[in-house]
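Dear colleague,

As promised, here are the two records you asked about, laid out in our usual form so they can be pasted straight into your sheet.

NAME FIELD: protein one
SEQUENCE, THEN STRUCTURE:
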Amino acid sequence: MRIDLHTHSTASDGTDTPAELVARAAAAGLDVVALTDHDTVGGHAEAAAALPEGLTLVPGAELSCRVDGAGLHMLAYLFDPAEPELARERELVRDDRVPRAKAMVRKLQEIGVPVTWEQVARIAGDGSVGRPHVASALVELGVVDSVSDAFTPAWLGNGGRAYAEKHELDPFDAVRLVKAAGGVTVFAHPLAVKRGAVVPESVIADLAAAGLDGIEVDHMDHDAPTRARLRALAAELELLPTGSSDYHGTRKTVRIGEYTTDPEIYGEITRRATGAFPVPGAGGDRQA
């Protein structure tokens, strides 16, 4: 089995619609794909309806979190999307995305970059606006060569010149809320240092003690030594090690399915979840 547990669609900051994403996943030879848009489950229904036969959809989300001044992302899988407390927190984060993006546009204008809110809004379309849309505007203007180049302290990286904060969950609250909604949590790209400050391993240990299920090990922003360290840390803390592309369509160079999760790890994730079911193709609707 080939399993990719971290992808994004136009429901947040990817460039493929949910239907296009599952078609691309099938064409890439995947057996399982998770749709984990930022702080939203808005793409799940379209993705499920378009599922090709032989492909299974894992409904999920990537939750925006912050602890001790460091931003981090928490992947949540197979939770009940109607659970009210978690749904309320996702809404608070989404509501803060537009003011945050506008603040980043203002900061860029103040340092001489001719970006406009209209440009960013056009790029975002109907998706949940975020930093990648602002980064794409910088690419359009020729300010940076790629979206990844914009996620640095010089531009939009955590604490960078044009960085702006938004409402974010405490990661310990995120673990608690997802667990209460029957879901499973995996710390996304925990040592992606090129994005800015990362949390110390002691915080990962504390999250593990609080119920964190896994950490994303195989990811484009982790080099080989980092992956080895994270795999050892996962074993030490009894966390599930996952691998995922973090696919965003043409917004990033990584290909869907470029990094994958071991089938035994995927099986354990599904065994732990009680809030929702994986959705089998074609177009199944077996989602709690």
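NAME FIELD: protein two
SEQUENCE, THEN STRUCTURE:
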Amino acid sequence: MEPDHQQLIQLLPLLPVLAELGRTEHMTETAELLGVPQSTVSRAVARASAIVGMDLLVRDGRGIRLTPAAKTLLPYIEAALEDFQAGLDRVRHESDVVRGKIGVSFQHTFGEATLPLLISAFRAQHPNAVFELRQGPRDDCLQELARGDADFALTAPIAPEGKGIRSFALYREPLRVVLHYRHPLAGRTSLHLSQLRHEPYVTLPEGVGLRALGEALLREAGYRPRIAFEVQESTTVRGLVSAGLGYSILPPAGPGYGTGQFLPEAELGLVEVPIESDLAFRQIGLAWRERSFEPEAVRRFRELVVNRGGELLAELVRARSGTP
């Protein structure tokens, strides 16, 4: 180890004492401020003088005064301590961000990929960030946001702005008719929903965003559906359709979720067919409450979603929408 570097290592623990002594120029006061015996301050000064190779303090009557060498060193000592304090403050600030809890209410379908991708990107910057996640129907998510039980609501359709609620559109994806793979219309490149007017419909509960969107499309087609099954989540919807028990309206399943995977011996399988309507899509977005004080962790997650959400979800959007 180089001699100068060795001296620096020996001096580092003494810098706070030297800085305080340079400010007070009084042994007793320095000891009291640092909460150490006066002898500790004396030994620190003696050791620092030995390492530097010249006196840093001299007696001046009953007091002490800094030598020219000490006065030269003092600004550098203070600057070093200030830089370290700035670094320490930043680390503690980051730690506070990490410790902050971020509450997100989201619809079930966004737990497959959308929300995990956003959280993964945030935790890449803040590895110990804590999230409190609640999933449920769209109406429940928005109510939790309004009550203050959640910091964010990830929903489709996107929450309307107003009454202290702000929102940001992340992406949109098409809605498709889900049919049994042997259905007479399964091979169509697109279809009009009126062609399914008399067939059993598989839907989700009231308050779920997808149910409302599907019903709006069916109204546009000029009829109310004959509901055969009402189930809690889209995985079961797909299962019932794959068994030939009805049709449904859902967003694309995306890669890895069974579309096009058939079990001919069991007559299980389904296909997704584009809908002939300009309304056949859903807008996914994040909503939050305006408030006078926003926790740092919440603010940073919101900024990540607003500034980078589109980029982070671009590949997912392409895969689920079937676009190149």
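A couple of things worth noting about protein two: The first strand starts at residue 57 and ends at 60. DSSP finds ten helices and twelve strands in the chain.

Best,
R.
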